[in-house]
Amino acid sequence: MSTFTTTKQLEDQRQIIHTNENIYEALKNRTADLAVVGLGYVGLPVALEFARHFSVLGFDINEKRVEMMNNSEDPSGELKRTAFDNKEIRFSWKEEQLAEAKFFVVAVPTPIDKQNQPDLRILKSATTSVAKALKKGDYVVFESTVYPGCTEEVCVPILEQISGLQFNVDFKVGYSPERINPGDKTNTVDKIVKIVSGSDDESLENIANVYRSIITAGIHCAPTIKVAEAAKIVENTQRDVNIALMNELSMIFEKMGVNTFDVLEAAGTKWNFLKFYPGLVGGHCIGVDPYYLINKAIRIGHNPILISAGRSVNDGMPAKIANKIINELKTRGQKVSTARVLVMGTTFKENVTDIRNSKAADIILELKKSCNDVTVVDSWANTGEMKDHYGIEMTEEATGIYDAIVVAVSHETYVNMETEEYLNLMTEDGFIMDVKGILKNKIESEDYFSL
Ligand SMILES: NC(=O)c1ccc[n+]([C@@H]2O[C@H](COP(=O)([O-])OP(=O)(O)OC[C@H]3O[C@@H](n4cnc5c(N)ncnc54)[C@H](O)[C@@H]3O)[C@@H](O)[C@H]2O)c1
User: Fold this and answer.
1) pTM tops 0.85, yes or no
2) 285 assigned to active site
3) What's the pLDDT at 129?
4) Low-confidence residues of the chain, pLDDT below 70?
5) Nearest atom in ligand 1 to 284's CA
6) Fewer CB within 10 A of the terminal residue: the chain, N end or C end?
7) Residue 7's pLDDT is what?
């Protein structure tokens, strides 16, 4: 297959209508290629799964990341080198190569801006790249998390305007949310039921068949694109609101001198009690997606009080935890500015390298406003990234003893540490703030705090 397609060739290809084989058969018979646009935590594993069955082009605008993938390295640090073995895949950052594909899967980030509003610039830019390559008979499936309606209201017009082609006549669109869980080696992409949707019956059938090739857990066909978009947002909003409830309970129980984890253990013995725990909600999914729903709800005339309150409770947790630590230092007669504080864990969740939207980082930044001696360790996080992203210096390991230890992330290494090892890091008057409750019942209660 050529690596460069001229405008004339692209125009010619746009005239081709595959009358004999549908898109799924074309992919299966290798008469059409599948392109995955955006090869991050979501896109790369999906692309590699597709590459077991189809001829795949992995496209990403980041040349450095593409170079790594060409060397069988996952830039996100989730996959082993062997994941690239025996796959029919080529990686490129050259936009013109997208013209080689007929089935596009878009998996680019959909973040929020500083005002917590959806920032669709990356999605629009990736859609523009696909639109330039779009031909008659092509399919575009979006996997990026968006608010209900975004695919048809924002992406389809870009595809139509730039390609000059007509939606549902010349090309079809679908939406299939990604439910991958970073750091989870059990529920890998193929083992999670995949929701699929299409812009009409024919596209739904083809898209379902394409995903059925790679998903062993099964396919759920949503009746419309909007339903599929909403399903993903609701999954994460439900988690966010429930964790917010637990966080609020933890504030109430703290005032009562009751341990929240003890309460939840007791309440959890009822068959229908939902097992949620207090904690930090960071990362680019649970702490972000509800804002997409909030934005859309407000624009259509509904003020989502509960969902907004959940966001505000969860976003406020880092400051609350930092204040608790500072107040405890004061209570113990420590001079806050010179007290030695150790923070263990900086990633947005346990056992991942991802530091984006890390609430552990927010605790550190809050502490640093009052404490001059904050040591930060995390063997998962990249030292350079922490410095660039948050201006936080990390050290390789804890040295000496500390007046306060904050276990902010429940990395396996911290869970497996002996209680003695924690105690050896603590001054006589020191205490531990165990954000995730991993040391519950292991440390003397007067030296121990959790949510
Ligand atoms: N990470 C998760 O656990 C997860 C889970 C479910 C859903 N999602 C959703 O999936 C989407 C992708 O998230 P992610 O975590 O994989 O993002 P990511 O940041 O890990 O990766 C995105 C990739 O897209 C590339 N990219 C950016 N702009 C591009 C463009 N215009 N064209 C081509 N490539 C481009 C980047 O270089 C990067 O390699 C988001 O909408 C996210 O909300 C993520």
Assistant:
1) yes
2) yes
3) 98
4) 1-20
5) 43
6) N
7) 52
84-90: which pairs have CB atoms within 8 A and are 24 or more residues apart?
84/48, 86/52, 87/48, 87/51, 87/52, 87/56, 88/51, 88/52, 88/54, 88/55, 88/56, 89/47, 89/48, 89/51, 89/56, 89/57, 89/58, 90/56, 90/57, 90/58
Q: What is the per-residue pLDDT for 239?
A: 96
The alpha carbon of 123 and the centre of ligand 1 are apart by a number of angstroms equal to 9
pLDDT for position 445: 77
Residue 167 in 3-state DSSP? strand
Q: Does domain 7-223 have CATH number 3.40.50.720?
A: yes
The pocket around ligand 1, CB under 6 angstroms, is made up of 37-43, 59-62, 65, 76, 107-110, 122, 125-126, 129, 143-145, 178, 180, 182, 284-285
Q: In the prediction, which pLDDT does 4 show?
A: 46
Give the pLDDT of residue 147.
98
Ligand 1 centroid, distance to 6 Cα (angstroms):
29
Residue range 317-451, CATH number:
3.40.50.720
CATH number for the domain running over 225-315: 1.10.1040
Instruction: Measure 106 CA to ligand 1 centroid, in angstroms.
Output: 9
